[in-house]
Amino acid sequence: EKLGLRWMAGGIGGLLGGNLFGRLADRFGPERLIWITSLIAAGNIWLMFIHYLPSWPLIPVFSLFVFLNVGRTAVFGAVISRVPLTYERGRFNSLMLVVSSAGMAAGAFLSSAMLSETPTGALVHMDSLALIAIVVTLATPILVSVLYRRIRRREAAPPTVTRALSADFAE
Fold first, then answer.
1. Of 26, 65, 93, 156, which has the most beta carbons under 10 Å away?
2. Contact between residue 47 and residue 61 where contact means Cβ atoms under 8 Å apart
3. What is the per-residue pLDDT across 57-66, written as a single tens digit (0 to 9) for each?
4. How much of the chain, in percent, has pLDDT values that exceed 70?
């Protein structure tokens, strides 16, 4: 009965997180925000799946989880949109869709292979899956920082023929 309320609260958190962090990424730069949101999200995963106490209110904890994940996605989008040159965007977005779908499929396969259920309906090995999620969450800002530095280096470099062609295609 509370499941609908939880998802509604999570959806509101997602709407607020995407909007807020998208604006903050434009104002302060995405790299710092990826670090902050990833650290908080890793802590939130720890609290939700490893150290959760039944006395904690699940709706605010879940809303924070969705708020941070949608916010991180918006910030990541601000970085990733600068990767392809103008004339490469269609191919790049197609590749991103394939890689993202493959990642979700791998995550679904891994979680279904790891998780099992007790006779009472409790999930077994959720803590191990949560630790994997925390490691991936904490690896994200490192990878984004490397990518963002390369993007800034490329954008600061003198124009090349390829970049000049890219500007021609943008018109």
1. 65
2. yes
3. 888 888 988 9
4. 92
